[in-house]
Amino acid sequence: xxxxxxxxxxxxxxxxxxxxxxxxxxxxxxxxxxxxxxxxxxxxxxxxxxxxxxxxxxxxxxxxxxxxxxxxxxxxxxxxxxxxxxxxxxxxxxxxxxxxxxxxxxxxxxxxxxxxxxxxxxxxxxxxxxxxxxxxxxxxxxxxxxxxxxxxxxxxxxxxxxxxxxxxxxxxxxxxxxxxxxxxxxxxxxxxxxxxxxxxxxxxxxxxxxxxxxxxxxxxxxxxxxxxxxxxxxxxxxxxxxxxxxxxxxxxxxxxxxxxxxxxxxxxxxxxxxxxxxxxxxxxxxxxxxxxxxxxxxxxxxxxxxxxxxxxxxxxxxxxxxxxxxxxxxxxxxxxxxxxxxxxxxxxxxxxxxxxxxxxxxxxxxxx
Amino acid sequence: xxxxxxxxxxxxxxxxxxxxxxxxxxxxxxxxxxxxxxxxxxxxxxxxxxxxxxxxxxxxxxxxxxxxxxxxxxxxxxxxxxxxxxxxxxxxxxxxxxxxxxxxxxxxxxxxxxxxxxxxxxxxxxxxxxxxxxxxxxxxxxxxxxxxxxxxxxxxxxxxxxxxxxxxxxxxxxxxxxxxxxxxxxxxxxxxxxxxxxxxxxxxxxxxxxxxxxxxxxxxxxxxxxxxxxxxxxxxxxxxxxxxxxxxxxxxxxxxxxxxxxxxxxxxxx
Lengths: 368, 270
Hints:
The structure holds 2 protein chains of 2 kinds. Chain A has helices at residues 18-23, 28-44, 52-77, 85-102, 107-132, 136-159, 168-172, 178-181, 187-195, 214-232, 234-244, 246-251, 256-282, 293-303, 315-331, 341-365, and strands spanning 164-165, 184-185, 212-213, 285-286. Chain A is mostly helical. Chain A has one domain (29-365): ABC transporter involved in vitamin B12 uptake, BtuC (Orthogonal Bundle). In chain A, the strands form 2 sheets. Chain A has a two-stranded antiparallel ribbon. In chain A, strands 2-3 form a two-stranded antiparallel sheet. In chain A, helix 3 packs antiparallel against helix 13 (256-282) and helix 10 crosses helix 11 (234-244). Chain A is globular and about 65 Å long. The relative contact order of chain A is 0.21. Chain B is 33% helix and 25% strand. Chain B has helices spanning 55-62, 85-91, 108-112, 130-143, 160-173, 190-205, 217-223, 246-254, 257-266, and strands at residues 17-26, 29-39, 44-49, 70-75, 78-79, 93-96, 119-120, 127-128, 178-182, 209-214, 226-231, 234-240. Chain B has a 6-stranded mixed beta sheet, sandwiched between helices. Chain B has a 4-stranded antiparallel beta sheet with strand order 2-1-4-5, with helices on one face.
């Protein structure tokens, strides 16, 4: 480091303007992107996209991805990757499905048990990365395949040859915990709003949108908690420090290992939450659940301002990154464009985000 | 620049740290061959030496990174064994290494309190006291003569001298009795160097014992109260300010003979 200490022309720097101050917020790119995408669809998509039901339509996949993306973002800020998130969704889905259907456990036991297994796998991931000093990229890439394969094999064993496990809905009918992880919230409020004419109803009087899908609430709550932890707690400071410079952090007394392992556990638990929500929602689980989600989550985190090198990023950014994702995937169906443009669109967004982040980083730090 | 008031003059102060005939061997290499050194509160003791003289090994022994092969470390008069840098830090020996242990992407405040964040509230609402952290950071920096633009300024935007000052301020804030500075001026320009030297002077006046490692005689003479020269793992003696000239120090560091010849051809400019 001694050799990079730059000799700046003057001790006092110039006063900065509002724009520069804004530029220092890591989530700026994602917010700007979300606004740009919204404007794009306002002009090109059919107006139904921005009705209440249209918004719920793109927010639901955004929420499922977003829960993963926020976990991935926090781990990326701490300087590590987890490529096993997508496979973890499938694996947790299998474990959860097997607990509920094959063993007939109630949710109050099945959910904590599934989380415990996921957490153990997170600890395993983290421990291998930290003990060996290998890049987390390669270690979790191995788990991407291991968990995907294990899900396939496990499902075949559980079902006697099929890669899909059904019957979750029957097994859970009447379970008191189910409404927290599936269905819609605030249905009473929505019915009332329909009655007084604030929101659209079908001719028979039922509202077009029965309530807010619970995953959206989980997504928003998680984004708020993650932001609070990152910006306002000592642990948040440790996360930034661990990713910024591992040596400097541990020399200053930051428990870098604990921080990183906890975050590997967090990403595994995020995947499990998504698995539980989607399995209860669909009433079944299959081995292709969460396919490619690890990349989408990392892309959302990067669009949200996370640097690939760690030490910088935000949970709110990942929140907006995931919403951009949801809008683009679902939004194209409201337009006349071929839906398959969405991959081109996302690739371009990713590239733009990386270039933008790189530029910002140089501005913020004034070096390197 | 610095006030020329050696703290040791006129009174017999007990050294905070006394390193007695320290030897350090790495396999068959003798890095330190019996080095004695002490530092008292409120003085700046300069440790001079050319590259390879053993300066780094010596301060690493003092800061708990290495254990001496032979010799004794007396801390406030009592023999001490430091098992780790943490032990030394807890006792009050803080070392500012050249990498400064700072993270350019993080704000000054976040760096300042990294690993030792002030908190308020109770679990689960136990949170970082940002107001306090910001205020304390600004105050600590002002005491060392630097007015930050804001506590949320990223460390990466600070000049090298300012960064050095943040690292020093942090060590002092967290109760350093002995502050070891590893070549703090080596990568700095003229103005920045004078700022860092002024910072050393302020810290000394707060009663902290400063060990200033350098190979630049002029920087040492600017703030030093005493000077110890290391050469090939041995001390060539300790001199008080006023008892020795820059040229003599320079010659001792270089081992005398060759330097004198060189200096003739360079016109005495080194």
